[in-house]
Design a protein that fits this description.
By secondary structure, the protein is an all-alpha fold. It is 63% helix and 1% strand.
């Protein structure tokens, strides 16, 4: 971020803080030494330097971000702190993010120590309620006190939390162990968890699960997961339950990297020794992995599963995707059947509501009842909020238009947001460069406290005011994310802001790019954070990689480019739009293909459009996007195209078609100009 932007942001924040309550008055503008203490403490916390944190804490007293300083210092030595120290902190910083964050950390520690009494006492004061492991500790207390029969839903909740966790944990494993002991979890529940951990390459998590159901076999788990090929080659096929399950885990591990090899192993040796459910699970993993590789035989693997109920939601999702892309006409009967056996939670996802409705409408004979059922499904999600919501709108014969704008937040509403202590701290932290801390505090304030900073939920009016406060301070990511949380009121100008409008639109039109497409991409890439930098090194508004920036600068004739210019606004826009234009032209103007290439690289997008060396079906753009193998890129493509449609409605004032922007995707037209294969 440039110096003048930082100064401007601080000026706005300080003006906002002027109306703060006396106890939370902002530091003076010449508070650089105190700010330096906070920055130093943030760095010491990341290093785990307890002594430095303790030494600096007195100097942070009275600073607006004192709660952060106190949190870092106590969190760093929480394992040694007394309960009284923790409670003193909690009472000193009530109703703050830091109070609830430390309570979350402390409660996890209490769970690990099996201090159920203190954990029970503190539970009612915990507000976040978003930590699965901690939730499992609370459920364990209920199991110990009342037994699972007192609340039959406990087993389902523990199962859901445990299965969703990809890392080994103590809380849900403990609860699962208890439920297995009381026979409210079956052995199959536990073995399925072990299989998932093998699939995620988490041998410790797999071992923990196996220890519950077969302690004598737990030590064999690392071999089955880490050396699956060797394990399968050296073990004798025999119908012994524990050995079978270890074999299943090993086959699952092989399938995650080489589904063809797993297919051969199943057909040549192992299939006769497995139960029906075990065979179905392995074939489900093989089918899913083949579908993720866009192999033509994915549905063949899935066809070996006689009962789809033996598959989990992830497998069923990939079976559905494979059926959608199974030729020029989707296998709609398979789509309908696979979605039909998903869990109730999965079926509520707009993705599967939309495709289920499409499958019903594709039946050879559509009765009035079927038409009514499909239309009701589409109406339940239709709107402007997202990708499938917009597609459902079009399927019902309507296009995307800008919703009527709600009344702007009043001066009083803005003032209430401005005086919110958590929002004050968040803006100040972001202005100081402590973006992660500021974002977490802002999210907490807009999710779990009301406009006055007390425990509660913000109303739509309060959210719009908070979003406007962020917009006014040019903290665009919080502006967008906060505005998106309104439940009824939709302010498109907040949700789809257009910072740097003159620069972006002028540059886009100069190189014949749709400005709405550029804005749709920037919104997804950086949320307009000028100095954004990803974990892989992409930087700036358009998140350009250094090597790509250097290549593109040469290609578009940008002379004198140096790597340090990558976050310069105009340079980043010039390079980002230049690269996007080259990618778009390389893919014959296909917006979804170009978006996929921008995120995952052109070589991957080329393969995804036609996996079999240029041969393949021509697909609806939505079907192609849903079959992108990488979850991040699949989500990215859908969001960029939905954003583009919304921005186009804003910029032109005309109804827009997402389907038109998606187009059709298939093998490259032989008559098209040669691909730019050197694109990085």
């Amino acid at each position: 971020m440039k110096l003048f932007v930082i100064v401007s942001l601080f000026t706005n924040v300080l003006l906002a803080l002027g109306a703060a309550q006396p106890s939370l008055a902002a530091p003076a503008s010449n508070n650089a030494p105190a700010d330096a203490v906070i920055t130093d403490m943030a760095q010491a916390f990341k290093r785990g330097d307890r002594k430095r944190l303790t030494a600096l804490l007195p100097q942070a007293k009275g600073h607006l971000l004192e709660p952060w300083a106190a949190y870092w210092e106590l969190k760093a030595r929480l394992d040694e702190a007394s309960p009284q120290e923790v409670r003193t902190f909690l009472s000193r910083y009530p109703a703050t993010y830091q109070e609830d964050r430390l309570r979350n950390d402390w409660l996890l520690l209490l769970g690990q120590r099996r201090d159920w009494t203190t954990l029970s006492d503190e539970h009612p004061h915990y507000r976040m309620r978003d930590d699965r492991e901690l939730r499992c500790y609370f459920l364990t207390i209920e199991l110990l006190e009342k037994g699972p029969q007192a609340n039959p839903a406990i087993a389902d909740e523990v199962r859901k939390n445990w299965m969703a966790m990809r890392e080994a944990d103590d809380g849900c494993t403990l609860a699962a162990d208890r439920l297995f002991f009381t026979q409210h979890f079956t052995a199959l529940d536990v073995w399925r968890k072990a299989r998932l951990m093998a699939e995620y390459n988490r041998p410790r998590g797999a071992r923990n699960a196996v220890y519950i159901v077969a302690p004598e076999a737990a030590d064999a788990v690392p071999e089955a997961v880490n050396n699956a090929d060797k394990f399968l080659a050296t073990h004798i096929a025999a119908p012994q339950k524990v050995r079978q399950e270890l074999v299943v885990m090993a086959l699952v591990k092989v399938a995650t990297t080489d589904p063809d090899k797993a297919d051969k192993l199943m057909r040549s040796k192992w299939q006769p020794y497995l139960t029906t459910e075990e065979r179905h699970w392995v074939w489900g993993v093989i089918g899913r992995q083949s579908a993720m590789r866009l192999d033509d035989d994915a549905l063949t693997h899935f066809a070996r599963v006689a009962h789809d109920k033996d598959l989990n939601d992830d497998m069923l999702a990939w079976k559905t995707r494979a059926a959608l892309r199974a030729g020029s006409t989707p296998k709609w009967n398979v789509v309908e059947a696979a979605i039909g056996v998903m869990s109730a939670e999965a079926r509520r996802d707009p993705t599967w509501i939309y495709w289920h409705a499409r499958a019903l409408l594709a039946r050879k004979k559509i009765t009035p009842q079927i038409q009514q059922e499909a239309n009701a499904m589409l109406e339940s999600i239709a709107g402007v909020r997202g990708f499938y919501e917009q597609l459902a709108l079009e399927e019902l014969g309507r296009k995307v238009t800008v919703p009527a704008r709600p009344a702007a937040p009043t001066g009083e509403e803005i003032d209430i947001a401005r005086r919110n202590p958590s929002l004050q701290r968040a803006l100040y932290a972001i202005g100081m460069g402590l973006r992660s801390e500021g974002v977490r505090e802002w999210n907490y304030a807009t999710n779990l406290v009301d406009a006055q900073g007390k425990a509660g939920v913000m109303s739509d009016r309060e959210l719009l005011a908070a979003a406007q406060l962020a917009c006014d301070n040019q903290v665009w990511d919080r502006c967008i994310n906060t505005s998106e949380r309104t439940r009824v009121a939709i302010d498109f100008e907040q949700r789809f802001p257009m910072p740097h409008k003159d620069a972006v639109i002028a540059r886009a039109r100069t190189i014949n790019l749709d400005p709405a497409y550029v804005y749709g991409l920037i919104r997804q890439e950086s949320r307009f954070v000028t100095d954004a930098r990803s974990h892989v090194g992409a930087a700036g508004l358009m998140q350009v990689m250094p090597a790509t920036a250097k290549w593109t600068a040469r290609k578009i004739g940008l002379t004198g480019f140096t790597p340090d210019q990558i976050t310069d606004r105009d340079t980043n826009i010039a390079i980002g739009t230049g690269y996007l234009k080259l990618v778009l032209d390389s893919f014959e103007g296909s917006m979804p293909l170009a978006a996929g290439a921008y995120n995952a690289g052109p070589s991957r997008a080329r393969r995804w459009r036609a996996p079999n060396e240029g041969v393949g079906p021509v697909l609806e753009g939505a079907i192609w996007a849903e079959n992108v193998p990488f979850h991040e890129t699949r989500d990215y493509v859908k969001k960029v195209l939905a954003n583009t449609t919304s921005y186009a409605a804003l910029i032109t004032g005309q109804p827009q078609s997402l389907k038109a922007k998606l187009g059709m995707v298939g093998p490259r037209d032989a008559a098209a100009p040669a691909e730019n294969l050197e694109l990085p």
